[in-house]
Design goal:
CATH class of the largest domain in chain A: Alpha Beta
Distance between the termini of chain B: 53 Å
CATH topology of chain B: Histidine-containing Protein, Chain: A
Protein name (chain A): Phosphoenolpyruvate-protein phosphotransferase
CATH superfamily of chain B: HPr-like
Number of helices of chain A: 18
Oligomer: heterodimer
Strand order of the largest sheet of chain A: 1-8-7-3-4-5-6-2
Distance between the termini of chain A: 51 Å
Helix content of chain B: 25-40%
Number of helices of chain B: 3
GO molecular function, one term (chain A): phosphoenolpyruvate-protein phosphotransferase activity
Strand content of chain B: 15-25%
Shape of chain B: globular
Largest interface: A-B, 45 and 36 residues
Largest sheet of chain B: 4 strands, antiparallel
Number of strands of chain B: 4
Pfam family, one (chain A): PEP-utilizers
EC number (chain A): 2.7.3.9
CATH topology of the largest domain in chain A: TIM Barrel
Keywords (chain A): Cytoplasm, Kinase, Magnesium, Metal-binding, Phosphotransferase system, Pyruvate, Sugar transport, Transferase, Transport
CATH superfamily of the largest domain in chain A: Phosphoenolpyruvate-binding domains
């Protein structure tokens, strides 16, 4: 009996699968060299045409995201700029398989070395294109995987994913891979468990495996006790997910009948396209950093982005946070290089230091405010003077727009509670329209544990009494002063943290859209 | 007489001029007979806007100001239509691949 082997990876699509391991990595295929360059050219042309035809057939049989992924591959394969270098290499004496592999590998390197996740993830599509043609050239047929298999290997091709019947279970465990890949996206939308980043394994792996894609691990050659424990976790996950789904469309209430507002956090206006507006109570946090990529956005671009979300939300509140650049979110030409950026010129500090940039955002917000129920909040407020200066800029810009006859409206102005000074002494802020607790930053500042540093991750816990006590005191201040208090950090959607937050007096949480159902289900279990 | 046109547009799409957007972009470019090119800076390098390989190679992320130029029949219409496509966020109505 071999020893159980455990590998850790990163969850790309949550879920559990138990099944035989199926090795994805291909065996070396043989290629029969042709007599002349013309024959090599013909062989490659025929193989490309066959691959194109197969893709077109597959496109016609799929829809949605999957079809768009295939269309991308098809467009690539039909582009002479992709195939040209291979034919050129054949003309100077290369066999078709080498010519094709080298031409495609040259393209793939460009994707693999990109510093952007999205482009890097496209390398898998390019390898898929390469291998589809190579397989045809070498007449190598793909071995069929048994039903319910766990696909294990370097990476999995999107076409392979789409051709697989997942109805009898199964999952994906990749040594490399990316949670941003097309396959990861498909796996999430179809509920296929998937983990990535397992790393290279020294041993040849085979046999039955347990894939825990909720926590990101795989066990090979499991003991009987491990199989039993795994099955319990698996059925509990399925039950939790099924149960959570039934909560999605209902208002959130605890089992004692206390209503809790659940809003969503969004980072990009297009995020709302996939959310049913009736499942949430509004947008508790709309980030605006997405607008500040490599260049500073103009007023019109910002206005359109804000207006889109306001119109989507109908009469529900939309809380937009003014740009929170700096810290771990640098913006070239805006933020400054600092030795300790989390404690430096970020959030409202930076906006006040660069009023010419801030005023553009303020004008866009004032103009967008007429299209819905807008609220605006300032990040990283430490002292009330910062709030007052920001509010004064809003008043000035409103007057200037009005003088020019431009339609505008002053939204309620609130602040983020994330710097401990505000949480400890909230009484200085009795004039703000609302308070929104940014639990990620509040926790990292109270615990002095950077949230992007894995070696101090054990300290970065919202459930530490020091953090919870501050949250409770802010909630109590809000109740006494009739100032609404909400929370928009990751803790709001964490089923393990939700009971403590409600106990601390919060009745308004904002979560990422994917956590809406689970958050509502967790609220229903609270007896307050 | 040979027409020519040039314009710039800010890419606001979350993932930039990337797989799905670039399929739409090159498909639209191919509907015009004019020669169409894109660049990330006014002084180039310029990429063939009808080749998805070249457009993807430009690696234009969100926040990039995309330069579009065209020469030949319908150059103005081509640039106008492509700018509009980028402005409309490539008509994408689905969620983008996103890491948590």
């Amino acid at each position: 009996m071999p020893e159980p082997l455990r590998l850790k990876g990163i969850s790309a699509s949550a879920g559990y699968a138990e099944g035989p391991l199926f090795n994805l990595d291909p065996v070396v295929a043989r290629y029969n060299r042709k007599a002349t360059a013309a024959d090599e050219r013909l062989a490659l042309g025929t193989a490309i045409k066959a691959a194109t035809g197969r893709l077109a057939t597959l496109v016609a049989a799929t829809e949605g995201d999957a079809a768009e992924i295939l269309e991308f591959q098809l467009a690539m394969l039909e582009d002479d700029a992709l195939t040209g270098p291979a034919f050129a290499a054949i003309a100077v004496g290369q066999p078709a398989n080498t010519a094709w592999r080298q031409a495609l590998d040259a393209e793939i390197v460009g994707y693999e070395t990109s510093d952007q996740d999205y482009f890097r993830a496209r390398a898998a599509d390019m390898r898929d294109i390469r291998d589809q043609v190579l397989r045809t050239l070498t007449e190598e047929s793909e071995a069929a995987a048994p039903a319910g298999a766990i696909f294990y290997g370097e990476d999995i091709a999107p076409t392979r994913f789409l051709e697989t019947d997942w109805s009898s279970g199964g999952g994906i465990a990749l040594k490399a891979g990316s949670a941003a890949s097309h396959v990861a996206m498909l796996a999430r939308s179809r509920g296929v468990p998937m983990i990535v980043g397992l790393g290279a394994s020294p041993a040849h792996l085979a046999g039955v495996a347990l894939l825990d894609a909720e926590h990101g691990g795989i066990i090979l050659a499991p003991s009987r006790a491990e199989v039993e424990a795994f099955r319990r976790k698996s059925s509990s996950f399925a039950a939790r997910r099924d149960r959570a789904e039934t909560f999605l469309t209902r208002p959130a209430v605890t089992n004692a009948g206390t209503a809790v507002r659940v809003q969503v956090n969004i980072a990009d206006p297009s995020d709302v396209n996939s959310i049913d507006v009736s499942t949430c109570d509004g947008v508790g946090l709309m980030r605006t950093e997405f607008l500040f990529g490599k260049t500073l956005p103009d007023e019109e671009t910002q206005y359109r982005a804000y207006r889109k979300v306001l119109e989507w939300a109908e009469d529900r509140p939309v809380t937009i946070r003014t740009v929170d650049a700096g810290g771990d979110k640098p913006v070239p030409g805006f933020t400054v290089e600092e030795g300790n950026p989390f404690l430096g010129l970020r959030g409202i500090r930076l906006s006040l230091a660069r009023p010419e940039v801030f005023r553009v955002q303020i004008r866009a917000l004032l103009r967008a405010a007429i299209h819905g129920n807008l609220k605006v909040m300032f990040p990283m407020i430490a002292v009330v003077d910062e709030y007052q200066r920001a509010a004064a800029l809003f008043a000035e810009e409103k007057a200037a727009l009005a003088a020019r006859g431009v339609a505008q409206k002053m939204p309620p102005l609130g602040i983020m509670v994330e710097v401990p000074s505000v949480a400890i002494a909230p009484e200085a802020f009795a004039e703000v329209a609302f308070l929104s607790i940014g639990s990620n930053d509040l926790t990292q500042y109270v615990m002095a544990a950077a949230r992007d540093n894995a070696s101090v991750a054990h300290l970065n816990s919202i459930r530490h009494p020091a953090v919870l006590r501050l949250i409770a005191s802010v909630a109590a201040f809000g109740r006494a002063q009739k100032i609404p208090v909400s929370l928009c950090g990751d803790a709001g959607g964490d089923p393990a943290a939700i009971p403590a937050l409600i106990e601390a007096g919060l009745r308004d949480l904002s979560v990422v859209p994917a956590q809406l159902a689970m958050a509502k289900a967790a609220i229903a279990d609270v007896s307050i | 007489m040979s027409a020519s046109a040039e314009a710039t547009v800010l890419i606001t799409h979350e993932v930039g001029l990337h797989a799905r957007p670039s399929v739409k972009f090159t498909k639209l470019a191919k509907t015009f007979s004019a020669e169409v090119e894109v660049a990330l800076a006014a002084n180039g390098p310029w990429f063939d806007a009808k080749s998805i390989v070249k457009v993807m190679a430009a690696k234009a992320p969100k926040g990039t100001v995309l330069h579009i130029r065209a020469r030949g029949d319908g150059a103005g219409e081509a640039v106008g239509a492509l700018v509009e496509l980028v402005r409309r966020d490539f008509d994408e109505g689905v969620d983008h691949a996103r890491t948590a």
